[in-house]
TrEMBL record:
Domain of life: Bacteria
A Pfam family of this chain: BPD_transp_1
Lineage: Bacteria, Pseudomonadati, Pseudomonadota, Betaproteobacteria, Burkholderiales
Keyword tRNA-binding: no
Topology class, membrane: Multi-pass membrane protein
Annotated compartments: Cell membrane
Record protein name field: Sugar ABC transporter permease
Region (Disordered): 16-44
Any Gene Ontology biological process: transmembrane transport
GO annotation, cellular component aspect: plasma membrane
Transmembrane region(s): 51-72, 113-133, 145-166, 189-212, 233-260, 295-315
Length: 325
């Protein structure tokens, strides 16, 4: 019977100072309890947690009031029939059923897909312009300002400029083609004409992102690649683009989100016409709420658009976290 007492004695000797008086029960205390006791006994850790909470609290309150609460309210309103004045009446999934049977919804969804595919041209075009402007030549600052100008223009101004450009009576297309082309008045060309106008400022935005990324390139890697004989496309593909991967990720994410939430140019240039041929989900949602006072139906469109964007954002966030890990 002496063996257990010997083991207990040695375990008690292995305890840190101040814990030997706790006896055998203190020697066999679980590590989790000791870790919890150590955390509770650390005033510095409590102060750090309190400071972090105080710094994050204003941002969390703002996000809750202006992001989370509107999202939840929109989802709730989508189950009601409401014109904004009379008391709302609960209709369940009727708004979503009507939405799935509306021809304008599928037209808007198809146009959003066209926006998405054509808008993805903005990052490579922005990269090409950034590579051209990233040169130490005389007068390059003036050229940069010309390419930077579309980024500082509002969407309304860009829409008006291209509306005049497309005008069949006195627009520039009449000078180039010899006759007027009613781009915005033709259901076949209206969406493509608006996307072409939207690519102008979006390319400028991607150009700014890539110009910033080019300033962070590792000069030693570039010099080593040149010494190995890398030139032109090989240098760009194997050395420059891998270092611009974070910039490319940001440019693609911003471009896709911009394509899904396109609204201002459509409102200025066509108003969703002709015959709702150029409408997108964001403008269709606005049209139903402001013109026809169908706030419940408009909320259901907003929920569908939010779901599409949420799938894309979650996918890219998971990919970004995986790359960081």
């Amino acid at each position: 019977m002496a063996l257990p007492h010997t083991v207990t004695y040695h375990r008690a000797q292995a305890l840190p100072d101040g814990a030997a008086g706790s006896g055998a029960s203190g020697a066999l205390e679980p590590p989790r309890a000791k870790g919890a006791r150590r955390r509770r006994a650390s005033p510095d850790a409590r102060r750090q947690r309190r400071a972090a909470f105080l710094f994050l609290a204003p941002a969390c309150v703002m996000i809750g009031l202006y992001v989370i609460w509107p999202i939840l309210s929109t989802i709730r309103i989508s189950f009601y029939n409401w014109d904004g004045m009379t008391p709302p009446s609960f209709v369940g999934l009727d708004n979503y059923v009507e939405l799935l049977h509306a021809r304008a919804f599928y037209t808007a969804l198809k146009n959003n897909l066209i926006w998405l595919l054509l808008f993805l041209l903005a990052p490579p075009m922005g990269l090409a312009v950034a590579l051209y402007l990233n040169q130490a030549v005389r007068g390059i600052r003036f050229v940069k300002s010309l390419f930077f100008a579309p980024f500082v223009l509002s969407g309304v101004v860009v829409g008006l400029i291209f509306t005049w450009f497309y005008d069949p009576a006195f627009g520039l297309l009449k000078l180039f083609a010899g006759h007027g082309i009613p781009v915005l008045g033709d259901a076949r060309y209206a969406t493509f004409g608006i996307v072409f106008a939207a690519l102008w400022p979006q390319t400028a935005y991607c150009m700014i992102l890539y110009l910033t990324g080019l300033t962070t390139l590792n000069a030693e890697q570039l010099e080593a690649a040149r010494m190995e004989g890398a030139r032109g496309w090989a240098l760009l593909w194997h050395v420059v683009l891998p270092q611009l991967r974070p910039t490319t990720f940001m440019a693609v994410v911003v471009t896709v989100i911009g394509a899904l939430r396109s609204f201002d140019l459509i409102s200025v240039m066509t108003g969703g016409g002709p015959f709702e041929s150029s409408t997108v989900l964001a403008y269709y949602m606005y049209d139903q709420a402001i013109k026809y006072f169908r706030f419940g139906y408009s909320a259901s469109i907003a929920v569908v658009l939010f779901g599409i964007m949420l799938v894309y954002i979650v996918y890219h966030l998971r990919r970004m976290l995986r790359n960081e890990q």
